[in-house]
## 1
Amino acid sequence: MMNLKIFAATGLAVCFCAAAAAGQKNDEGRIDELLSRMTLAEKIGQMHQITGTGLSADMTAAVRDGKVGSLLNELDVETINELQRIAVEESRLGIPLVFARDVIHGFKTIYPIPLGQAASWDRAMVEEGARIAAREASSVGIRWTFAPMIDVSRDPRWGRIAESFGEDTYLTSAMGVAMIRGFQGGDLASQDRVAACAKHFAGYGAAEAGKDYNTTWIPESQLRDVYLPPFHAAADAGAATFMCSFNDINGIPSSGNEWLNRTILRGEWGYDGVLVSDWGSIEQMIPHGFSADLKHAARQAANAGVDMDMMSFAYTSYLESLVAEGQVDESVVDEAVRNILRLKFRLGLFDKPYAEPQGREAFYREDALAGARAAASGSAVLLKNNGILPLKEDVKRIAVVGPLSDSGRDQIGTWCFDGEPQHSVTPLQAIRNEYPAIEIIAEAGLAYSRDRDAKAIEKAVRAAKKADVILCFAGEEAILSGEARSRADISLPGAQTELIRQLKATGKPLVLIVMAGRPLTIGSEVGMSDAALFSFHAGTMAGPGLADVLFGKVVPSGKLPVTFPRMTGQIPVYYNHKNTGRPASGITLIDDIPVDAVQTSIGFTSYHLDAGDSPLYPFGYGLSYTTFEYGMPRLSSAVMRPGGKITASCTIKNTGSFDASEVVQLYIRDKVASLIRPVRELKGFKKINIAAGESVAVEFDITADDLGFWRGDGSFGTEAGEFELWISPDSASGAPVRFDLANE
Ligand code: BGC
């Protein structure tokens, strides 16, 4: 199963559980003792999370009376400390508050959006970004972030794909664990660490039509194989909290789903952290049609094991009467409060409740900016290069155009409430600052991504004509991705395609850099360009990071964490699909069908007449300035015994002239199974450096556990038989070797 075992080999095992275990025993005694002194009203107060309103009379009274356990969105450190003082010194039991905030990909220093971070396939980078975010946020008293979002996201229309680690279960698990480790460190009680929150539990990424908050219909085997493993890995990694998702799964909203929250999370996984609702998600069970009213919703959520109510006011309004009426057992309340107090003990809040204000000193430190710059370059994916990149430093005149060329706000992307666009270094600024000898002709052309101003395009074209090379920074504004920002058409917005068409017509070399919150259907735009670099909104240091790649100071090494469709109608399109009984072959595209063709003349296989059967770019794809040659995988044995392992290795040669990093990917396929298995599944990856001309042997251990899945009889395990294995640069290339898993 996807758990610590997988990560131990790669050094990702989080020591949080072990390190905290000793202290935890003592905490349990203190928790019980405290609980025994609490009134029912005080217990319910702990289960209530509200948004900050400064030091308003209502807020200070609520804190003093023990009617609130946690605040979100309070950011002023003096206010935070004063509210904490009231909680600790003036409330009857002195239980500290915990302050929370969405610190998703940075607090002040913004890293690439999580989808971009996933494109780096670099666990250490993701961990470091979260460490920096924790340091900055905790400096104002925030000790709980609502991240990472580990919803497997197969639909680029869904705006929240930006916040995800993409379409793959294994990659999402690995990145999620790295981020949790970065936020929490080895000791959550360190004041520069924050509690992570694995969200949204569960299945939110399966929203129908990629429309946010939409319903999902997920068979149990798919839920367990695809959507739950990242959460299981997060629980095993010691994620201090979990958050419910907004969606219903198969008719049951997560905030009222006993099976999900009790049977699986608490029962099967033994999770003892806090489960918080999403914002208003308890109340939203009413419009879902699952709860008759708020009291009903409160009962369902409490009984389903939701410990803390974020902004529904359901528990404070009704839990006391529900207990009195016997509709919610007080032991349910006690269990929730235990989980909440445990979090506060783990965070060390009983011993050190106050933040030590550090002012702006805590922000934008040198290591933070250097990390963000490396993350921006490390997560850029080179889609195409006819040799124009890297740019030569002796290039004389560059036209910098496009609506994303100088937009500090847009480059930091979605979900960075505290990011400060004025601290962003844009591509235009970076190129100007760092290459003063080059003449820069800056003419955005379009003021923002949805702009359709033809006159402005003319200006950009005039500028481009004077240059030796055109760098066109296109994409999406930040506001077009993120929560409730779904799109039914994921092409480049506004008149950007026309801008690119006219730039191409100048005959000047054209480099397209796309900065966006999701995959876009950019086949024709890439086709018109001499080189194309895809950068998911890359944060504060996007400019210098991308300039490093464009000028070859950094060789691109990012790989797509999600499939890019040719056109929106192909969605859902993801690499680990099933084969079908009639896999695509003999594809005839729509324009190649003879007029009056007879029905049987173009075959009967699984593809679209207008899109064929391949994506624009497959999962795992990304070019480099160098080239790599993969040898055939070698296996330590052609047969794996049950409970055993085999080692797969492959020699990879850097056949180009740049030292570079390569993300080497391991895939398997289970050929025959009681429930059909995907055509390929990622089971491992390594990002390695290979010097020009050198060869490196890369090894992966595969255990029988890695081959398990939720089988036809509803149990987890393996099935004997034939497997294929690839070690390849992406999910669509390479030749497989075969091995057998032997019977018991
Ligand atoms: C989002 C969560 C977020 C919460 C608090 C909700 O709308 O779904 O991901 O953590 O708001 O801001």
Note: The pocket of beta-D-glucopyranose is lined by residues 102, 146, 199, 278-279, 483 (CB under 6 Å).
## 2
Amino acid sequence: MSSASITRRALLSGGTVLASAVAGNLLVSKLAGAKEMVRTAIEPREIEFALAAGGVTRNVYSYADRGPAPVLRVKQGEPLGVRLRNGLAEPTTIHWHGIRLPNAMDGVPFLTQPLVQPNETFDYTFSPPDAGSYWYHPHCNSLVQMSHGLAGLLIVEEAKDPGFDADIALNLRDWRLGDDGQFIALYAPRQTARAGTYGTVRTTNWRREPDYDAPSGSLTRLRVVVTDVTRVYKLAIEGAPGLIIALDGNPLPKPMPLDNLAVGPGQRADIIVRMPDTEGAFVTVRDFSSPTPLTVARLRAVGASRKRGLGDVKPLPLNPMAEPDLATAATIPLVFSATAEQIPKSQYCGDLGYSFWAINSTPWPGSSPDAQAPLAELKLGRSYILELHNRTPHPHPIHLHGMSFKLLRSDKRDLAPVWTDTAMVYPDERVDVALVADNLGDWLLHCHVIEHQETGMSGYLRVT
Ligand code: C2O
Ligand code: CU
């Protein structure tokens, strides 16, 4: 069985725990009195895959043996155990983007765990407290490993089924390929010092403009996950109405119509599409981020109409976030800027050897053993306001590990008060966000344009 096909098999009952995960299979074991642990094994490796018209691409990295990574699905609060076995020729780790988990499971080399060397294993176990659309990716030599393909989706299902008719996950990303379908230079330093280097071939679930079937007249849930290292997508739907029900995993208090939604690197959007009643009709998801709009995917209505209405779409149950106390919150300014300071190249995790960017004037590539002092020290249980100041002419999707934060305000636009782990901060904008420091440890905070992350726009918050 390939690791891409995930099935659930209850192997044991009663009080025994199956200790070893079988590579490629997903096992379910039962702990006495506890929820079942979903176990799986993931092995990043090098494969070949037909991504572009020009030819089969070599040196693709995947978490599966034949194509893109398996979509992992667990239920909210259900324990998940993933054994990473490193089948690459270089060290790696897995970071669970957006999941609030114990610091030791966060996947940041040196800061939270040792590097996982070739052929070594590392066991990640955690119980996702929040339902929603999440993803996982490496956190060492990230520009190379992610640009070559490493990323997978992690879907945390609501404890109670919200009642949609279909659920389609879309992994959006570009590839830097030449006409022959082979990888070209992954970045150009003069772009790295600007908005970042864009890919040349654009895919959804590793396919160009794929079609999916969805029941006619249904409410179909699309889970859009931007795993690209650079591109900010601008999404719209043609041929049917769409409602956004969640952003970055977290439910909106009230669903909003979809209209050119910006979704940046690391971000997610859950969109409900009311499929047409007529069998064979197409709905098109489009991306307007480039001068020539791109078809992200087409959905084809199949079968008799389910006759659902967008009015049936109720807000999803909110995730269990601690509400920050703004009256007592301390303020932490975080300034994102360019820098002229050059720090020595680190020999770890594919440091690009440039420092173009800084947080609070300090450049750091984010995955080296020589971490600077934390950007700030937070006290467990206290509330904080992070002021995200973008003092550059480029947008930066700012991501925090281990804790979610609530958008408070922007000095440039209206912001819905949503919870997120990745906030877009536009040129010269200041976005204030709030959180309760409710998770102990050192938590990375960085731009999710991976070239920016790796050329200085990284730091961390310490919660003690
Ligand atoms: Cu998805 Cu540190 O990132
Ligand atoms: Cu950036």
Note: The chain is about 5% helix and 40% strand.
